[in-house]
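Appendix B, record 7
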Amino acid sequence: MTQISPQEYSLQAPREERIGKVLVVGGGSSGWMAAATLATALSRDIEVQLVESEAIGIVGVGEATIPPMQKFNRFLKLDERQFIIDTHGTFKLGIEFHNWGRVGDQYLHQFGAVGREIDALVKLHHWWLVGRQADQSADYPSWQECHVAYHAAKMDRFAPSGPNKQQLRNRYTHAYHFDAHLYAAHLRQVAESRGVTRVEGLIKGVERKGENGHVSAVVLEDGRKLEADFFIDCSGFRSLLLGSELEEPWTDWSKWIPSDRALAVPTKRAEGGLKPYTQGIAHTVGWQWRIPLQHRTGNGHVFASAFSSESEAEERLLATLNAETLAEPRLIKFRTGRRERAWVGNVVAVGLSSGFLEPLESTSIHFVQSALERLVELFPTKRMDASLQQQFNARTKLEWEQVRDFIIAHYKLTERDDSEFWRYTREMEVPDTLAETLQVWRDRGHLAVDGGHLFQIGSWASMLIGQRFLPQGVHALADRDDPAAIAQEIRKIAAECKAAASQLPTHAEFITRNCAAREMA
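Structure tokens (predicted):
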């Protein structure tokens, strides 16, 4: 066997192979998230530059997030208090759904675990079902009532939970609502303080290398060329590099998620308590979001142009607002689906340039976050190893399809027949992966999801039970206790959760004391 001396062998890439410059194409939330991430993760000898134009607006409706964003903030070493102040943010304990299973129904997709488990082997939702069958009185607790987050949300209460999740008081988590424009500005400050340079300009062309087709530079309207070794496409729906230049094929999911339009409009903050949750209110076609911020409320209506005109949608939206509008409704057109690959050559698309799923479960910003986490993990050299790209693309595809299935299930599992739109979604065929998940749940209340899924058992159970899709049987080991005694235990858990939530300050009080925006103080 040939011996390799230390002088001939190194685990490190030769200096000439190392990335020297990364160019982020596009600003907004995704662009500045990318710039801040790279500035934090990469060595200082790698230049990070961002090009954007003030002449191009940002979509800017992604004002609601999910709990993994706490991890992203910790990675960037953001001060949560200052983050909330700068973005006029509020806290979020879940998403309240109205009219999805039936008109008049209401449930909360709450963040966090159940108040406590009864048994180490059998999950609580099985015991809840056993108790429900034994105790059919009207005041038997709903599934939601077994969660602290539900009671806190209904009482408009909030304080961050502590690290000891064995304590009932800490068995929930939180996400955020914020102004997307202010969020981009906040991250710009962070990124620039860590060495990112910003270039103002409109891109009119792209230059590529002849030998491998890699992008070598983008050309601005004024003739300037911005060269780089690696490009992050954050150009939004235009997908300037991945879609327009590299022509990466599009996988369309509109047959399962037919919505292709959204109207967005801000209103004054509604009177009453400051709600620590997002609302998703289903209409005859599509649904409406309501997101409470410190200084205003974000509102919008997602709908399908095949089932509703834009004027009808605007009429629906304006008729259901609960406060005075601050601007005219803004129309956003989109396609539901994704590029087949997010990383091609020396271009990685992040955010809307790689795909779009409607904001029903507040996942748009999370897709940016998870793509950046993968990119940091698999960060390349100039060789752009095919194995890294394949790993990145495979994991991206899997995550998008798993979230896609969760979104589709909201539409499929409806009993509504009051419009052509709901009849279509109720009767449509769904992806095989979702069909399997629903069948396993229907048979015995189990879920065919593993630890890699973004949405775990708590999220799926809340949605499935909330939309009346109950299992036909429970875990085979849920026959070890008396059903009447189980029902009493469920009542105790619900009461304990309510008592724990009642000890929290109101959401408005917490923000006023700790993180009120300067304009609100």
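Remarks on this record: The chain has three domains: 19-57+179-252+336-401, 109-171+431-509, 261-333. Residues 261-333 form a domain with the D-Amino Acid Oxidase; Chain A, domain 2 fold (CATH 3.30.9.100).
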